[in-house]
Design goal:
Organism: Persicimonas caeni
Strand order of the largest sheet: 1-8-7-6-5-4-3-2
Site (Interacts with tRNA): 94, 180, 183, 299
CATH superfamily of the largest domain: Aldolase class I
Strand content: 5-15%
CATH topology of the largest domain: TIM Barrel
Protein name: tRNA-dihydrouridine(20/20a) synthase
Radius of gyration: 20 Å
Family: Belongs to the dus family.
CATH class of the largest domain: Alpha Beta
Domain DUS-like FMN-binding: 12-319
Length: 338
């Protein structure tokens, strides 16, 4: 089965407290094609909690993948069924997060040492759904970090039917480094991801880790099938305004940053009526004007006013009035600190 996610060459990484429905809605205003991911959702959040809170999204956010954390094949399969039923385009298994929470729960990167468990989850999920089941993992963890270790993991999971692997090109240390340090301290080892693609040409291999610009994206695409951008998507989200032209060859003309804010206003109104707070949405818009004139005034006004209980769309309009209305400058043009 060929799906909208199977051959997508660009995605935004799943990030806790970052890639929620509000951030994804904003991103979709200026990239229609990039594959977006949810935050990681544990199986118990899907099975035992408020399902709309765990899985809610707006139709314009698609194509959209749900990232799941867990190690029980039957629970993972049931969550995959639910995800497919509510309209997700893909389900992704988290085998990369190194936090103490995932270690105690036996999911995330520690599962790289248990490829048979991941393979069992993949097999059960693929039997349960028609949408793609994919895996995001690291190049290794602790002292299980050789290329051979990673290749063994991929081989076992591939044999269970997984064909798309997203590889964070850093190892993780389960002891001694925080999750934040694990995103920066271990060195990037891109060559091992390139080698994985060379030795497993039948697989769709996506690279992740430390990629900040679309010049870098295009360089990586010469060696692998896809590129996933993480923190740069949150710190400088408007770089994705060039994604559809540069990566997909589309004629789509993205809105300016001002037009993005104006297009968000009806969405803000709608979400406030659903019980959300402006700060839930405004937090994700703080970096929209990163490196542009007036960026600091924009951020300051939002920081000072969006947390009030009565705050509404007018806070965004007031902040927008503090930013000079320019033309369609390059998304990567930098003239002020972010």
């Amino acid at each position: 089965m060929t799906d909208v996610t199977d051959t997508n060459p660009l995605s935004v990484a799943p990030m806790m407290r970052r890639t929620d429905r509000h951030f994804r809605y904003m991103l979709r205003l200026f990239t229609k094609r990039t594959l977006l991911y949810s935050e990681m959702v544990h199986t118990r959040e899907v099975l035992d909690s408020d399902r709309d809170r765990a899985l809610g999204y707006s139709e314009p956010e698609k194509p959209l993948s749900l990232q799941l954390g867990g190690d029980d094949p039957m629970q993972m399969a049931e969550c995959a069924r639910i995800a497919e039923a509510v309209g997700y385009d893909e389900v992704n298994i988290n085998v990369g997060c190194p936090s103490s929470r995932v270690q105690s729960g036996n999911f995330g990167v520690c599962l790289m040492g248990q490829p048979d468990v991941v393979a069992a989850c993949v097999e059960a999920m693929r039997e349960a759904v028609d949408i793609p089941v994919t895996v995001k993992h690291r190049i290794g963890f602790d002292h299980q970090d050789s290329y051979e270790d990673m290749a063994h993991f991929v081989r076992v999971v591939r044999d269970a039917g997984c064909t798309r692997f997203t590889v964070h090109a850093r190892k993780a240390w389960l002891k001694g480094l925080s999750p934040k340090e694990n995103r920066n301290v271990p060195p990037l080892r891109y060559e091992e991801v390139y080698r994985l693609k060379e030795e497993f040409p039948e697989l769709f291999v996506e690279i992740n880790g430390g990629i900040k610009t679309f010049d870098e994206v295009e360089e990586h695409l010469e060696k692998v099938d896809a590129v996933m951008i993480g923190r740069a998507a949150y710190d400088t989200p408007y770089i994705f305004a060039e994604a559809d032209k540069r990566i997909y060859g589309d004629d789509f003309e993205p809105p300016t940053r001002h037009e993005v804010v104006e297009a968000m206003l009806p969405y803000v109104e709608e979400r406030l009526t659903e019980g959300d707070k402006l700060s839930y949405i405004g937090t994700h818009m703080m970096n929209l004007f990163a490196y542009q004139p007036g960026a600091s005034r924009w951020r300051r006004h939002l920081s000072e006013h969006m947390h009030h209980d009565e705050a509404g769309p007018e806070v965004l309009e007031q902040a927008l009035a503090l930013v000079p209305r320019g033309g369609r400058c390059s998304p990567e043009t930098r003239s002020e600190k972010p």
